[in-house]
Amino acid sequence: MVEHHPPPGRPTRDGATAPAPPGSRAVSPSGGDRLPDGQLAPLLLQHLRAHPDLDFSPYELAKVLHRSHGTIRRHLLHLAAVGVVTRTTVRPARFQITT
Predict the structure, then answer these.
(1) Residue 4 and residue 10: Cα distance in Å, rounded?
(2) Which of 4, 5, 37, 97 has its CA 20 to 30 A from that of 89?
C-alpha cells in the first residue's frame, strides 16, 4: 500500500496539517518569506514613523515592505481603530502615523 504524504502545510486525508520538515522556512502563498506572528505591525510602524509627514496607501506600503496589500490594509484598519495611525482619506484609503 502506498502512503499519501502531502507537502508541508497541506491537509492530510484526515484533515490534519502535515508538519514542515526541520530547518525549513515558512513561505507565504505568494512565495515570499512568511513573517512570524505579530511582526508585520512593527514593520508598518517603523516605516510610518520614518516618514511622519507622509500618508500611504496599503498598496504603496505593500510594495515597500514586500507583503500582501490585503494583510497590510487589515493591520492599518486595526491600528487606526486603536489610534496609532490616522486614516487621512477614505477613498482611496490612505494612512499616516498619529503624531
Answers:
(1) 12
(2) 37
Closest CA to 98 of 84, 88, 87, 77: 84
Q: Please spell the DSSP secondary structure of 50-86, one letter per residue.
A: HSTT--B-HHHHHHHHTS-HHHHHHHHHHHHHTTSEE
User: What would the pLDDT profile of 28-84 be if each residue is shown by its tens digit?
Assistant: 555 567 888 888 999 999 999 999 999 999 999 999 999 999 999 999 999 999 999
Strand partners, 33: 27
pLDDT band for position 11 (cuts 50, 70, 90): low
List the chain domain ranges: 40-97
d(CA 90, CA 15): 41
Q: Which residues contact 79 (CB under 8 A, 6 or more apart)?
A: 41, 44, 45, 85, 95
CA 75 to chain centre: 8
